[in-house]
Design a protein that fits this description.
Layout (H helix, E strand, L loop, with lengths): L1 H20 L3 H21 L3 H31 L1
Helix pairs in contact: 1-2, 2-3
């Protein structure tokens, strides 16, 4: 189990780096959603299911959806 936790920490570190280094806002939101999923898996390995469920709902689904809607509205306003 310790090996899985170490691997999950490694994936989270790589995912965070990818989110920070991504320049395109749309790709950054998608990378952020994947990062939220990686955090969910890490929390499951750390035996924190309540935190994992919260991260799954907010970090993987709700916040990226809000950001995608915001980007769509900004793109719509830019073309007008």
């Amino acid at each position: 189990m310790i090996v899985l936790q170490a691997a999950a920490f490694g994936f989270v570190a790589v995912g965070a780096t990818v989110v920070v280094l991504t320049r395109d806002p749309l790709r950054q939101v998608l990378a952020f959603a994947v990062y939220g999923l990686l955090l969910t898996i890490l929390f499951l390995f750390l035996q924190a299911p309540d935190v994992a469920i919260s991260e799954l709902a907010i970090g993987t689904a709700a916040l990226p959806l809000i950001l995608l809607v915001t980007l769509a509205k900004l793109s719509e306003n830019k073309h007008e």
